[in-house]
Amino acid sequence: MRPDPEFDPQTLTRSLLRRRRQGALATLMAEGGAPYCSLVNVASDVDGAPILLISRLAVHTRNILADPRVSLMLDERAAGDPLEGARIMVAGEAQEVMGDALPGLRRRYLNAHPDAEGFVDFPDFGFFRVRIDGVHLVAGFGRIVDLAPERVLTDLTGCAPLLAAEPDIIAHMNAEHLDAMKLYATKLAGAVTDEGDWRCTGCDPDGIDLANGAEVVRIAFPEPVRDPMALRATLRRLADEARGRDR
Q1: Phi and psi dihedrals of 228, rounded to 5?
Q2: Parallel, antiparallel, or unpaired for β 35-41 and 87-96?
Q3: 137 and 193, same structural domain?
Q4: How far apart are CA 128 and CA 213, in angstroms?
Q5: What is the rounded distance in angstroms from the CA atom of residue 152 to the CA atom of residue 90?
Q6: Structural domain includes residue 3
Q7: pTM higher than the cut 0.90
Q8: What would the 3-class secondary structure string for 96-129 be?
Q9: Cα 65 to the chain's mean position, in Å?
């Protein structure tokens, strides 16, 4: 079979990890080891690893606490035949997050799922991060690829200044640049939703995540950014590109 030059499995996989907000979580039953599948809400850490907020009262959480091995399926939910859309199966271990890493995960999850504010502090709920061991991508006939973690996770080396500034960046974008984000979403990402406000929900070295209600888009950067000044310059270039397409 001839290779498809337009098929970029790494970029597609990274986009699905960042954009999808729900997925099918497969765990192993704590008693007997039978497979068990459930629907969960998902967010992404700064490197792209999935974040879960789950209750210890749920079967899948009890399963994870007994055996952390999981598989998580995320898909495009394309119109028409759902099997024609791309989907990834993430294999790894779900590890509960505590200590210094918890505030960052909590913030990123709530940016993606603001409705969770109502129960995030319930004592039975906890945050789990999926440590990715591998990803299986299915994107149509002849487009089936296995990817190692280093091909789908963002390299955070040298990115401490950007990561530290992320909360301020998001707040500034949502307070001062709603028009620019609408242009990013509709002109650069092909968003369907043209009404209402597009808001920034995450920023990382590889791109920014924007949401308008249930629609989520990813704006990938032409090259990685590692500090706020580089981000500012990149966003200006993207705004100029989006305005050019708006003419």
Answers
A1: -60, -35
A2: unpaired
A3: no
A4: 24
A5: 11
A6: no
A7: yes
A8: ECCHHHHHHHHHHHHHHCHHHHHCCCCCCEEEEE
A9: 24
